Structures are given as C-alpha cells and as structure tokens.
Amino acid sequence: MTTEPAVEPGGPAGPGGTEGIEPPPITPEGGKAKVSLADQLFKNLTRACGVALLLLIAAIAAFLIYQALDALRANKGNFITTKVWNPNDTPPIFGILSLLTGTVITAAVAMLIAVPVAVGIALYITNYAPRRVADPIAYIVDLLAAVPSVIYGLWGLVVLVPHMTGVESWMNQYLLWFPWPELAGAIIGAIFAAVWGRGTAGALATAGGVLGLLVGIFAGVANAPDSIGIFNTGGNTVGRGIFVASVVLAVMILPTIAAISREVFRQVPTAHKEAALALGATRWEMIRTAVLPYGQPGVISGAMLGLGRAMGETIAVALVLPASFNIPWRILTPAGNTIAANIANAYGDANNNGRGALIASGLVLFVVTMIVNMAARAVIARRAEFSGSSA
Amino acid sequence: MTTATAEAPAGAPSDDHLHLKGNQLPPFVLPLVAVGAVGVALLLYFLTSIQGKIQTGLIAILLYAAGQTVASGLVEGRRRSIDRFVRTAVIGTLLLALIPLAAVLLQVIVKGISKLNGDFLTHSMAGIGARDHGGGIYAAIIGTLEQIALASLISVPFGILVAVYLVEYSRRSRLGRTISFFVDVLTGLPSIVAGLFIFAFWILLLHQHQTGFAGSLALVILMIPTVVRSTEEMLKLVPHELREASFALGVERWRTIMKIVIPTALPGIVTGVMLAISRVAGETAPLLLTIFGNDYINANPFEGHQSALPIYIFTEAAKPQSWATTRAWGAALTLILIIMLLNLIARLVSRRAKV
Hints:
The complex is a heterodimer of chains A (391) and B (355).
Chain A: H1 32-74, E1 85-86, E2 93-94, H2 97-128, H3 131-146, H4 149-174, H5 180-195, H6 200-222, H7 242-266, H8 270-278, H9 283-312, H10 315-320, H11 339-346, H12 352-390
Antiparallel strand pairs in A: 1-2
Helix pairs in contact in A: 1-12, 2-7, 2-9, 3-7, 4-7, 5-6, 7-9, 8-9, 9-12, 11-12
Chain B: H1 2-6, H2 29-47, H3 53-76, H4 78-113, H5 118-122, H6 138-169, H7 174-187, H8 191-205, H9 212-237, H10 240-248, H11 253-281, H12 285-290, H13 309-318, H14 322-354
Helix pairs in contact in B: 2-3, 3-4, 4-14, 6-9, 6-11, 6-13, 7-9, 8-9, 9-11, 10-11, 11-14, 13-14
C-alpha cells in the first residue's frame, strides 16, 4: 500500500530465499506496492501454516496434560509404580507400570524378530539378487506396509493364534532353561557398544552383557523347571500372549526397517565393495567389511523408527492380547496389555476420571515414542554430517 | 529353496575368482544335501509330534543350511562355508518374510470373497442381532469415503503450503528447521495419540459430539506429515533454472510458485497425496475414539455417530460368532481393494509423469 519499494518482510524467519535467488525487487509498470503485497500475503500464508503446525504439536502436548491433570490428582496410587488400572473406582487407583512394561516387552520381542529378518531382506535385495528379481521383491515388501493394522490384528487373532500353539508349546518345552532376558541384555550391550564406538563405555556395556549372559546360563540350568524364564507358562495354556502379539508387530514393522536398511545399503560406494572383492573376500566378507559398517547407522535408525511404530500400534495388539494387568514376563501365556491397546479397550466404559487416566497414559506413550523417534533422527543426522564431511 | 540357494544369481558380481585355487564342492553335493534335509523333515513330520507344514519347511531349511555348511567346510574351507551359510540365511529371511504376506493376503481373499456380494455391499448393520447372519458394510463404506474426503480437503492444502514454505521461503532459517524437525516428530506420532488429542480437545473441551468430522480431524493430523514430506521432496526436484527463468521475466515469486513450480511437481504431489490417503484409510485407533461407530446409515459426517470400514472390522472381529468373523473378512477384503485402488492410481499418475 505504501510507496516503499518491496522490502522483504523477512522477520527472523526469512532472510535467505531459495538458495540465494531473490525475486526481482522492481516490477515493470511501477506497481510495486500492490505486487509485493500479494507476494507478502502468500509468503505469510505459507509461514502461518508452518507455525500452525508447530502450534498443533504444542496443542497436542498441552491438551493431553490439561485433561490428564484432574485424574492424576484424584489418583490414590502412585502413577509410576502402581500395577492395577482402576481409574473408574472410587477412590481411583491406577498406574502405568504394567502397561508400560507390556508395551516395552512386546515392542522389544518384535524388534528381536524383525530386525534380523529385515536386514537379511535388505542384504538380499542389494547384494544377492539380480535386478529383475530385486525390484519385485522390494515392491512386495513395501506392500506389507500398505495392509492396514486392523487386518493384521484380524489375521493374528483368527489365523495366527491357533497356528502358533504348536510352536509355542515346543518353545515352552525345550527353550525354557535358556536365560533369554540375559541374552537380550547382552544384545543391548552390544548395540550400545556399536553406537558409542569402541570406547570404554562400549567395552563395559558389552562385558556386562556377556557376564550377565554367563551368570544367567548357570542360573537357568541350575533350576530349570521353576525358573521365571519367559517361555515358562507356569502350567497355563499357550495362546493369545505377548509372543503372538510381537510376531504380528514384527510383520508390521518389517517393511519400515527393510526399506531404510535397503536405502543405506544401496548407497554403499561401489568402490568399497569392489576393493573388498579384489582383495579376495568372499561375498559375506565383503558385506561384513564394506556394507555393514557403512550401513550400520541407517539400520539402527530404521530399527528405532520401527520400535516407535511397534510401541504406538493399537488395534492389532488390542485384538490379540487379552486385557490383563500384570507384568507379562511369561510371553507365551495369554496375558499382558499395552498402553495403546488399553486406551482402545477401556475408553468405552470409562467415566470422567477414567478418560483422564487414559489420556495420561496416552501422554506417556506420546513422550516415549517421541524420545525414540528423536533418537533415531539424531542417529541419521549424525551419519549425514559424517558422510558430508568425509566426501 | 534348493534351487534358489544352489545357483549364484546372474547379474550380481560373480564369486568365481574364489575357485581359481582350492577345492570346490562337487556339483552333486548340494542337491544331495537338499534331498536329505527334506527327507529328514518329512520323516519328522510323519513320525513325530511335530506337525504343521510351515514348521516342516523351516526344519528342512535349517537342516539344509547346516548340511551344506558342514559339507562346504570339509571340502572348501571355513571362509567359503561361512559364505554359503550366510547366503542361505539371507534367502531364508526372505522366505520367512514372504510367509506372513502370502498368508495374510490369501486369508483375506479366500475368506472375504464369499461375502463380497451385492447384498453385503448395499446393506447396513441396522437391526442385525448377535444371531443374525445378514448385514453389510454400506454404512461403513460411506463413512470411510466421507471421512477420507474431508481429511484430504483439510490436510492437502495445508500440507502443500507448509512444504512450499519449507522449500521456497525458508530453506536455512531456524523456523524452517524447527518446522522440519517437528514434521518428523509428527510422522512418528502413534495414531491413537492423534485420536486421543481430538478426543481431549474437540470432544471433551469444546463439547462437540463424536461425528465423522471429528474422525476426519484425527486423520488430518496423521496425513499432514506424509503430505508435507512427499510434497517437499517433489518441490526440491523442480530445477532451479525454471524458477530463475520465471524471475528473469519479472514474474513475482508467488506467481512463480503457483504457475511454474507446483504445476511442474504436480504428478509427484498427487502420488504422495494418494499414498497418504491410502495410509490413513486403514487407520482404526483414532476413529475408535472419535466417530464411535454406528450400525445405521448416517451419510452426514457433521452430525451423529458414523461408521467406518476399519471400525467395522474391529467390532466384528471382536465378536465371538463365526459369521461375525466372516463379515470382518469381507470388510477387510473391501478395505484392501480400496487401498490397492488408491495405490494403483498413485502409480499410474507417477508413471504418466515420467513419460
């Protein structure tokens, strides 16, 4: 409206344009003011949308906290350490402990199944298969991601549960003695060692994991039948337990991890691979020395994105698991619940306080998945910086 | 599995250089090992309590892997035998992943196809009791289509504008980087939390009712990051020369974006939007909290409870009767067909763009 020449409205946000290309400051017929107004309006419109997106996320956190506060104040138990979930009673007693452990255990078991399989598929597509086979397989694996989660849940409940009883009984019979939690500890230690390099912290973590594994093996062999081994059913039948839910989750997160691993394996410089082969390496030695070290951060971040997805998955888990409130160490027996599944199951007959409690649990899920996702992004970002500086 | 492991895939770099010196496994050994493995697995299948065809197949693969590793280790040495073992393991993981995909698709098609008839598609669940076999998914289809359409109407323009800001206006600024980071955060948002937010904000705080529109709002939150990311990628692909040419002709920036940049990137944007739609079409958890489900036909998304295909599958699957499960399979097949159709359109659009 004024006769000032078009000054970029900029503000703190927009000093630089696209790669330093600025639009012409002067337009032919001297209609500068009107022209720049439209331009400013459009720019501010797009920026307003961007800011609105930030506000949306702030609003998600704010309203979840706001709606959860009343229920948390009315809670007679400790929200962190209480195992039961009775927010509809008077007085209400509820806690996140059993739900959170259920969420973590299902996601962890799903990861243990999905990550090796996904890495194997990614290796096959990038390093073993000829191109005309690799492309259809990549497409088929992506197809797994397009199937809605409710259909996986239906399949898990109707088809997988009865088909898994044989395998599960077998695991209960023969794998009972093995100290699986300690093995998981050792694997986690190895992952930490890989993430933090080969420094002291990594060595300590690995050593701790291996030590735990050895101790666990002896302890497990010593009192096999009554140990709290995760495959012990304690005399119950096998069925709709954590393990089946984890298998369903593993199928669901497989495409995510496989797609990201595939991308990083594809980016491995051909020169690295050819150098390894030229030195006489077998295919596997080439993969071990050239492909895996290069792709490791990508695999880790893909796995963490999958972990975030597994933790947040609702419907498939809600259909498979019976909603019970205990810490589901015995993963073969019908027991366990997750935060997301509990929200889907319990909101229907929740009173005011019950809704607040469910929103509080949703807040915990929001925070946990956000931390996992941010960690995954940080790993990718670190790799991007690294490859950028070495290029 | 025998043929797949025995022959080296053509096209990939060959391992022949390893055979220049040293022993090589005679060609008859691997088929022999394979036959032996299958034989032992079949023996176990018929003689012991290990039942189930998939288990037997897995046992055969494991035996084959072990057998060929030992054979190769004896003849060719340790390095070569490890290489063979890894190759079999990698192909094994592939088979392991294809089993559930084949199983899911097969089950949905086999169990759903019998339900997929005119009666099922054109009736609602009105007046269908627990013991009745009839009923259909008409109300659910209407609900799903309306909710997806409303969600797209809101999230697509919004997402495209955010992407335009990120690519065209704020490449390096702090606000741009912040927005970009939180788009990533939003990508990882559990869908139930999106539903919970709409429930806490729209229904509990603003005292709105559970309607199809409330469900669309939850889907909007889930669609936005996908639309922003895919649009961003497409806008980045538009060559700078196009923008520079437009600026050089004296065209303002916003007209350049609207008339040059977005039309150039349009096919890619459409593909991304279709994929985003097909992703949210199957979302169940957020809808559960926001639309509530309805046995009766309700074509108005702004008033009253509505149904949707995912909700329909969820409620029917949770019922104990076998005919309810059959209805769930029928609805699952319909949902997959709708999603495949959207995916197909996306692929066609992107293919046409390349030509």
